[in-house]
Design a protein that fits this description.
Layout (H helix, E strand, L loop, with lengths): L8 H17 L5 H15 L6 H7 L5 H32 L1
Length: 96
């Protein structure tokens, strides 16, 4: 029930669940993208930048180019969703 424009905890939870589902559906949240980003970070830290694309290919993970495109296309949306998620979690914490 909404009183004076405020959502009750059930509405907030439903909205939070919907936002979490959108976050999970975002291409940057895919398991293969997460694994690729982790591998890229590890290999860069080891000074093995020139081997990254080959290792990604060997592991059937998205290439550096594909990761870059996904980041460019979906970072803003994912950041917006995460801000919304945090805001809803805070509201739910205040509602308890």
């Amino acid at each position: 029930m909404m009183l004076f424009g405020k959502k009750d905890s059930t509405q907030l939870r439903d909205e939070l669940d919907a936002v979490k589902a959108e976050i999970a559906a975002n291409p940057l949240s895919q398991d293969s993208v997460q694994k690729a980003q982790l591998l890229i970070e590890e290999m860069k830290a080891d000074g093995r930048e020139e081997e990254i694309d080959q290792e990604l290919s060997n592991r059937h993970l998205p290439s550096l180019t594909e990761i870059g495109k996904l980041i460019a296309q979906h970072t803003f949306t994912l950041a917006r969703l995460n801000r919304k998620r945090i805001k809803l979690e805070r509201k739910l914490g205040d509602a308890l």
